[in-house]
Amino acid sequence: MDSLLELTLLVGIYLASRVSRRYRLGVVFIESTLGLVLALSILGFYFYNIYSYLNGVLNGSKVSEVNAFASIATGVGIAITLFPYFNLRSSHGRQGVEMLRYESTHVLMYSVASVATTVGILVSSITQSVALEILFTLILTVFIIHSVQGRLQDSFGITTGETLDYKMSLLITSKIS
Prior knowledge:
mainly alpha; 2 domains; 6 helices
């Protein structure tokens, strides 16, 4: 999966560096199309793994093997995601740019997902309960779908031209020419 994502990124960088009159759709279209492909790849990969996991657990061939030490990594993840959250909130307070507030809320969602992951790991590890492990897995699935859904929506809107402002596009093109 990582190789597929890296290959797609390299193709995107190559195409973006070659943007000229040959690529009338422009770098934004290429970026959005690649974003759409990546988001669909991530969803496909994730749903395949969640299906395999749930199939193994529900058929009894898999038991809870959650290790509490994994919560160290998610704890570090909480710290890593809280740093940009506070930075974005501070920047919003100083500059008043609404996009910074929106992005800080988005980063806060990642922090909440990291906390839910840490709690899920610890509770599943302590109790060895397969039911709780499934519950936390499904809760995290909602976070993942929410995260990828935003990228899918943005990419699809740009790729299909739904979010294109033709007047602004003409104005920018005339100013550049």
